Amino acid sequence: MAGEYDPTQIAPLVWHVGSGDPFATSETWARFYYYNLVYTPTFMLDGWDQYVGTSYYTVKSKLDNHLLDPSSVSIDVAGVIDDTDGEVTVDVTALYTISQLNLKVRIVLYESRIYWGGRWFDHTVRDVLPEQSITLSQPGDHVQVQRSFTLQPTWVAENMGIVAFVQSDVDKRILQAANLTEATVSLTPHALSFPRGSTMGYSALLMSNMDSPQTVVAYAEVWLPNGNPYPGNPVKGPVNVPLSAYQVRQLQLGHHIPMGAPLGDYIYKVTLENLGGDVIDEDEFVFTVTE
């Protein structure tokens, strides 16, 4: 099922527990007890929606419904996984007012394409890095978390991945999650509000997470205060952006705001795709047009 969604939509993790399970660890068991679970398999969506069973249609229906809910934060994950070690940087930004308390940034290493006992296993949790307590309350609040890690000799680096998520330990809801992908984009608006007739400016940070050159396709879209997409989307691109191995590119961009632009809150989103048309990352921010 995971293959039916792109990595900007879901960030699946499989926490193995059970006597004799070769992938069970003290950390996976801790996660099991964190939710006070009893049965397996149990699907936990966004940290709170629990389903015990294996019905494809039930899980898919729940996933699709969850994807309709807007998130109050954005997450960007950048990092490097080498043969023996790696590092990861997680940027978390509040998009709206946040009421949840006791927020934690949690970072998980997983491995896919593991063959054992005549079966293949994907998204298998291998390690949980030290968590970070954070405070977010107002739009624009930002936190950065950095971690380094070491791979065990039996782990295959090219099959490893990273998921980061923000979770409240009060109600256990996950506000947002993100994968480490081939490339990432991080947006920072120059302000939170812009008057009509001015230029809405922002910084775009593009980062390659690959050890070889690649080309990504970038484009930007806007959603109006009434919730509808701007009829002229995309407002930038699509444009091919070449990136060398682990390259970081920072761009200063902007748009003129017409005098007749509706007042209110806009959503601005930049999407990255590979040359095959698969979405690999996206980021967005909210800005307000004023008189």
Automatic annotation (TrEMBL):
Check the record and name the SUPFAM superfamilies matching this protein: Thioredoxin-like
Highest rank taxon of the organism: Bacteria
Q: What is this protein called?
A: Uncharacterized protein
Species for this entry: candidate division TA06 bacterium DG_24
Q: What is the lineage of its organism?
A: Bacteria, Bacteria division TA06
